[in-house]
Each structure stands twice: as C-alpha cells, then as structure tokens.
Design goal:
Strand content: under 5%
Shape: globular
Order of helices and strands: HHHHHHHHHH
Distance between the termini: 49 Å
Helix content: over 70%
Radius of gyration: 18 Å
Structural class: mainly alpha
Largest sheet: none
C-alpha cells in the first residue's frame, strides 16, 4: 500500500500546470504501471476479502493513467464480471475511453452502447455521449456527432456550469469548424 500511495502522491500532468518534459512523463507512466502491477498482484492475494473490488478498481485506474489500456481493460472485465450491475456505468465509460485511446473504435462504441442501454437515466450518459461524439467513426459523420452533442447541450440534463456541458459546447464548435 505504501508503494501505491507514494506513486499516487507523485501526481501526474494536470491541466493548467506546466507540462513535464517527456522523460518526466515517461517516469510517471512507469510509476503508475508498477503501482498497477503491484495492486493487481495484491488483489489476487486478496481475492476473498472485501478489499478485492477496490484493488481491482485502483489497478485498472493506474493502468489507464500509465497508458496500458489492454491491461486496464483486462482488470475492468474482471471487475464487471464480479460487481453489481449498479456499479457498471463508470467502469464501462472508462473501458470505452481505454478502447478509444488504443484505437479500437468498434469496441469503444460497444462499451458506450452497453452503458446507454443499461441505464439511460444515469448521470454519466452525457459524458458517454461526448466520448462517442469524439470517436473517429463519428468525426467522419458530422450529423451523428452533432446529434450526440446537441442532446447533451439541450436535453436539460446538464447545466451550463457543468464541465461536460462546457466540453460539449467546445466539441460542437470544433466539429462545426472542421465541417
């Protein structure tokens, strides 16, 4: 646990802060990767304890931060198989982002579709729609991406002061500029 805490305390590049140089970024990714592997080993030992699901969660988050999307998705699959369905929304969104970052657009769309079909009233639906609008398959089809973003902006689920609403507005502007 100390190693994981030390790694988490190291931080990572944040928005608005000066970007670390490339060597520093690789060092941080390496720390997250080592932490994730340690957490994964620990979770295998803790499999029958109440900490198991929390360890899986920490592991797939650290693999995601380290850019190791395949290992993150491997732990996500294990988490989805064992967790209650009510916990799946955030995990499916993370899985979609992993697939998208790895270039597997079809799998990303599949994870987002599962989230949307499973719980259309979930508060994460607007973030999932924004993620879907950013996928390359929707970049080529302006109308599909625009429909997802406009739903975020005008459905009444989001307020103009929310981060997802603001990001949706920026993405709409970017799409319109590209068209």
């Amino acid at each position: 646990d100390r190693w994981t805490t030390d790694c988490r305390g190291h931080g990572g590049p944040t928005r608005g802060a000066a970007d670390p140089d490339e060597d520093e970024a690789k060092k941080i990714e390496g720390l997250y990767r080592r932490a994730a592997r340690s957490i994964e080993r620990l979770s295998q030992i803790d499999m029958r304890t109440p900490n198991y699901m929390e360890r899986l969660w920490l592991g797939f988050e650290d693999f995601h931060r380290a850019g190791n999307f395949a290992d993150s998705n491997r732990l996500i699959d294990r988490y989805l198989a064992l967790s209650p369905r009510s916990d799946h929304s955030r995990v499916l969104l993370m899985q979609a982002k992993n697939f998208a970052a790895a270039g597997n657009v079809n799998a990303a769309v599949g994870a987002i579709d599962r989230l949307l079909l499973m719980d259309p009233e979930n508060p994460l639906v607007p973030a999932a729609k924004l993620t879907a609008a950013k996928l390359p398959c929707n970049r080529g089809t302006f109308a599909a991406a625009e429909a997802l973003i406009l739903d975020n902006l005008y459905s009444g689920r989001l307020r103009p002061d929310s981060a997802v609403w603001k990001e949706s507005l920026i993405e709409l502007g970017t799409l319109m500029f590209r068209q």
